[in-house]
Amino acid sequence: MRLSVIIITRNEARNLAECLESVRFADEIVVVDSGSTDDTVDIARRHGARVEITTDWPGFGPQKNRALDLATGDWVLSLDADERVTPELAAAIGQALRSPAHDAYDMPRLSSFCGRFIRHSGWWPDRVLRLFRRGTARFTDDLVHEKVVAGGSVGHLTPHLLHYTYPDLDSAIAKMNRYSSDSARALRARGRHATIGTAIGHGAWTFVRLYLFKRGFLDGRHGFVLAVTAAAGSFYRYAKLSLE
């Protein structure tokens, strides 16, 4: 069974090399880049990836479907540039492909926030469906928070996928700002409306849910900062919606 890895990128020179090194076992790597101005494209090509460059940005879901449409393998593994396949996960993927019992597989994702892997705060175990037989699954068309919708049965891999999502607080705040804007646009496109009261309510509930109900306090000061950052993102999502 041939395996294609698909990755979408934009200015991921800091992350991409390690991501690609972790999937050297793949038969094909497809990178769809949306106008990087750093060394992302050169890094991808040096690692043997097939690179396609797009001039527009349709959103995460449509862009990942573009990458999926370029894949030629029997199976597809979708990754983000800040993710890494561990040797244990690579072995589990190989075993699944040698004797597949399902059409798709999810895996637990262990994410890092400002240098610490988060075991609570609703971040673990974060099962994500990333491996699937080509032709049996597609990404949703969501601008953000897209997901894979599989048409067949879904199995579960045990080893985790590493996710270096926020190396520092600056990156967390910058990403929160981008995502809240994209989410507000997506909500507006669906006819949703909000008030400042809505924004305050969503922000407060996000903090309480992550820090108390999801036991973010067990992640120490990182858990507190994570909950505040997530709450701010939720607040700004609805505040931006209310102001336009």
Describe this structure in words.
The protein has 2 domains: 3-165, Spore Coat Polysaccharide Biosynthesis Protein SpsA, Chain A; 168-242, no CATH class. The strands form 2 sheets. Strands 1, 2, 3, 4, 5, 6, 7, 8, 11 and 12 form a 10-stranded mixed β-sheet that branches. A two-stranded antiparallel ribbon has the order 9-10. It is globular, with a radius of gyration of 18 Å. Helix 1 packs parallel to helix 2, helix 5 (169-189) runs parallel beside helix 7 and helix 6 (196-213) packs antiparallel against helix 7. Helix 2 links the parallel strand 2 and strand 3 (50-53). It has helices at residues 13-21, 40-46, 60-70, 87-98, 169-189, 196-213, 220-242; strands spanning 3-9, 28-33, 50-53, 75-80, 83-85, 104-113, 116-117, 126-133, 137-139, 148-150, 154-156, 161-166. The protein starts with a strand and ends with a helix. The model has no long low-confidence stretch (mean pLDDT 96). By secondary structure, it is an alpha/beta fold.
